[in-house]
Amino acid sequence: MLATVKAWARRLKRDVHAVYLAARDPRTPWHARGLAILVAAYALSPIDLIPDFIPVLGYLDDLLIVPLGILLVIRLIPADVLEEHRATAEGRADRPVSYVAATFMIALWIVAAVALYRWLEPLLLDWLR
Description:
Blueprint: H1 2-23, H2 30-44, H3 57-76, H4 79-92, H5 99-128
């Protein structure tokens, strides 16, 4: 069973990448492109609708929203375009991680944390007085 889950996760990861690539392809219909960008961004983003630290519900959105979104987008993308991008995604799976993207996401989290602190600081100071 563990092997089946791992294979499913690998296919899901490949399909997320393929959906991202298909969203940039002009042969993909505009409505599929828009939905593909949203699904891929949500799947790759560390920010969730329901935070993962909330028991059960935190992972439920990852187990439902991402696969259902990918399934919907896959149905909207022409089959030949999808197969081409699946093959490309499969070939890129062994490539190293993008340090530029990782740096960008870390910087985004730092900026969000600083903005949240600056927004909450006056409220906290008033509350402590």
